[in-house]
Amino acid sequence: MVIAVDVVLGVDESWRIVDRERASLADLLERLSPQEWERPTQCDDWRVRDVAAHLTLAARLSYGAAVREFARARGNVDRMIHDTAVREARLPVAEIVANLRSITGSRRLAPSTTRREPLLDILVHGQDITLAIGRERTMPVEAARDAADRVWTMRFPPRPWLHPRGRLVATDVEWTRGAGAEISGPISALLLLLTGRTQAAAPRLNRAMTMDN
Q1: Cα 133 to Cα 150: distance, rounded to the nearest angstrom
Q2: Which domains occur in the chain, in start order?
Q3: What are 106-124's pLDDT values in tens digits?
């Protein structure tokens, strides 16, 4: 029997990493070409600019605005997230970058989320952006482990991704979840697998994956 260990980062450390990741991603976005901003990502039908715009919203959207957007999406959370990002992405790219910089240091959360979601968001969506433009972005190992554990245990908001069928084993940090045939690799690759980025994760894992509810 595998015993899960508590992998939750401390509050201050988690937010320090979020701030650092937001600032470094803003630096990267500032250097992108117009063509790179329009590249498709592995995040559904979002382009780089849609993903970047999404990352600025949780800390800037008021509770009242969130309620209005929820009603506008007819109670569909996924549609709300998609539509708000796509509308925000119509802004000039310099304004999107400025908005991302402006939330560095913010501790504001989107309604119904925990303090662990900002870390999960910035790590995974940072990968969405860099994978789309053919660059590499290193994930802090401890932060990736915390984010992977958040995805594994997520019940609300409802987890939109299927669990991989097998026992997940990180090779660069202590973290094991699940049961069955072993799927091992760096924790960053396991995080991408857990969040539906199978194509990006697969080359760094030890076997082909099947997914389960």
Answers
A1: 27
A2: 11-212 (1.20.120)
A3: 999 988 788 999 999 999 9
